[in-house]
Amino acid sequence: MLDETLGDPQCPPEVRELKDRVADFVRARVVPCERVLDSGGPDAARTLHRLRREAKEQGLWALPLPVELGGQGLGLRSYAHVAEAEGASDHGPAALGSASLLDALMLARHGSPRVRERYLAPLVAGELRASYAMTEQDAPGTDPFLTATRAAETEDGWRLTGDKWFVSGGDAADLVTVLARTDGQPPEREGLSLLLVPTASPGFRVVRELPVLGAAGQAEIALDGVAVDADHLIGERGKALAVAAERLQLGRTLRCLRWLGQAGRAFDLMRERAVTRSRSRSRGPLGELQLVQRHVFESLLALRTTRPLVHEAVSRLDAGADAHVEVGLAKVAAARTLQQVADAAIQVHGAAGLGPDTVLPALFRAGRAARILDGPDELHITSVARRVLRPERA
């Protein structure tokens, strides 16, 4: 990323060096392997294992994870700058060991002693992969009270029955945290709980892959009477939404940072194209065209105005303050920015921007999906507006 162009004035000098090291690792190590990593299968697994080993050798592994869990304890405000560089590739967080952050923090804070002892260290070390299953086909993620997946109490634990879809990484996960109804009936607001399910359990089944605009990474899963130990309840019975809200706030903010990194990558490609590509043999570069200059300006404006919104959300989360408004603003702005900048970069590239020779189709796809996944724009717009319009704010 061209930080001197895109600007990150809030990045402290002691973090700048680390951010640059991460950016170099992603650019030199991860990006050349993206096609292999996208393909899945044994080659992808071997490549990811090699990248993780190299990240550990370079001292870049699990930067934001707590030290007691095997990470490096980089604080959220500092990691926020690094996360943007790390997220320039979809595979950056997995290669650098930060992809487990949400699950590791959730299990450390809300898991039973046995769960923490059994899973935390392997999760942080990259030996286990975890996923989170909330959405159901007939129960939109915007209304979790319609959750129909049920966990029936047994003598020694729970028995889970139901279906989930758009489970990120669900087809390759070793553990899946499932939102299920332990009490009451939909759409009652009480009675929802979280249970940690080992995917090797009898009755756990990956129904199908769910490509997002043609790209892999999401799955539909079925839970056919899956037995879950009693101590695999995450948090208190019936209190799932409190744990989920804690996870979602941080998760959405981390995604925003990674979308900024991807938008910056699209901007770099657009800038390079505008500077080096000639309009014809007898004319100057594309960047001399005013319409191309407008694409560059509007993209830079979007990036520079979105980053402060995201870091404001980071600051409030780090301080333990209510960040619903800030996270909502950041989520909508970052998703729009990624889609806008990727679209502009494709336009400047012309037909080349539509083909397989650049990452731009994948970045545009990510931007479009971002406006729905993790809560559609409409949900965040309505939620923020309602909070701002409360009488006590008048």
UniProtKB/TrEMBL annotation:
InterPro entries: Acyl-CoA_dehydrogenase, Acyl-CoA_Oxase/DH_mid-dom, Acyl-CoA_Oxase/DH_mid-dom_sf, AcylCo_DH-like_C, AcylCo_DH/oxidase_C, AcylCoA_DH/ox_N, AcylCoA_DH/ox_N_sf, AcylCoA_DH/oxidase_NM_dom_sf. Keywords: FAD, Flavoprotein, Oxidoreductase. Homodimer. Its cofactor is FAD. Belongs to the acyl-CoA dehydrogenase family. PANTHER family: ACYL-COA DEHYDROGENASE FAMILY MEMBER 11, MEDIUM-CHAIN SPECIFIC ACYL-COA DEHYDROGENASE, MITOCHONDRIAL-RELATED. It comes from Streptomyces thermodiastaticus. This is Alkylation response protein AidB-like acyl-CoA dehydrogenase. Residues 13-127 form the Acyl-CoA dehydrogenase/oxidase N-terminal domain. Residues 242-389 form the Acyl-CoA dehydrogenase/oxidase C-terminal domain. Residues 132-224 form the Acyl-CoA oxidase/dehydrogenase middle domain. SUPFAM superfamilies: Acyl-CoA dehydrogenase C-terminal domain-like, Acyl-CoA dehydrogenase NM domain-like. Gene3D superfamilies: Acyl-CoA dehydrogenase/oxidase, N-terminal domain, Butyryl-CoA Dehydrogenase, subunit A, domain 2, Butyryl-CoA Dehydrogenase, subunit A, domain 3.
